[in-house]
Amino acid sequence: MTVPTKTLPSGAELPALGLGTYDLGDHTADSVRAALDAGYAHIDTAEGYHNEAAIGEALAEYDRDEVFLTSKVLAKNLNYESVIESCEASLDRLGTGYLDLYLIHWPNPAISLRETLQAMAELHDRGLVRDVGVSNFSAYQLSCAHHVADVPIAVNQIEYHPWFQRPDLVDYCHESDTVIEAAAPLARTAVFDDEVVADLAETYDKHPAQVVLRWALDNDVVALPRSATPEHVRANADLDWELDAADRRRLDGRDRDEPVYDTPARDWTSDVYGIEQ
């Protein structure tokens, strides 16, 4: 398909469809290869996914400059030196000299955001990171990041799908020229059982995933679906068709304010956060 793009502050073009690689395990490299062979040009990973080495192995078979590559730093590693070390380690595992986008994976209220963003600016100045951004930030947190950052906050990667549409956060991202990326754009397949999604899939003779991804792109959101099945990876890119405006509105009306992972409480002792008492 012809994938639309978003222009980031560096001037780089971010493809509006990418491959998410969370929890792909032993299927990671094959999924990356299937995606790149199917015309994807955007791969999203994180140090917390523990798959950067496998992705690097697959990327070595392709032209690195043709792939938009994102990674993320864990919330427990947001002090200045740890951000630098995390990025350098990610680059080493991925086998590349730069990241197109580097994100704060989760906000960490126990570490100064200003300190974290100063480290991100240092990585940017060294040419190791072309654009910087955040992930799972509220509008309040994102507003603060914009205020204290020395380099523009290009992206906020958030949970976003028909059951969790977050209109206030989406509106603020648009107002502040922050590109929205949808992590878990299929609600980890939960929305496949939604009656409107199922009805539209039948109407358009498409898979429910294709309906939901088409809707996300139409709503000016970058979608990052993941799949361990190459056939599904390829099918998720088959989006050269249109949803009727009335059908888009039907999906807009499915919001339940129901997340699949971005729930209010956290296990602060987990590896993702790692915040000690």
Please describe what this structure looks like.
The protein is 36% helix and 16% strand. The chain is α/β, with parallel strands linked by helices. It has one domain (16-240): Alpha-Beta Barrel (TIM Barrel), CATH 3.20.20.100. An eight-stranded parallel β-sheet has the order 3-4-5-6-7-8-9-10, covered by helices on one side. Strands 1-2 form a two-stranded antiparallel ribbon. Helix 7 packs across helix 8. The termini are far apart.
Distance between the termini: 49 Å
Number of domains: 1
Task: Please tally the β strands and state the result.
Answer: 10
Proportion of strand residues: 15-25%
Q: Characterize the largest beta sheet: strand count, sense, and whether it forms a barrel.
A: 8 strands, parallel
Overall form: globular
CATH architecture heading = Alpha-Beta Barrel
Structure keywords:
277 residues; alpha/beta; TIM Barrel; two-stranded antiparallel ribbon; 10 helices
List the helices and strands and how they pair.
Layout: E1 5-7, E2 13-15, E3 19-20, H1 28-37, E4 42-44, H2 52-59, E5 68-73, H3 80-94, E6 99-104, H4 113-125, E7 129-135, H5 139-148, E8 153-159, H6 167-175, E9 179-183, H7 195-204, H8 208-218, E10 222-223, H9 230-236, H10 245-252
Parallel strand pairs: 3-4, 4-5, 5-6, 6-7, 7-8, 8-9, 9-10
Antiparallel strand pairs: 1-2
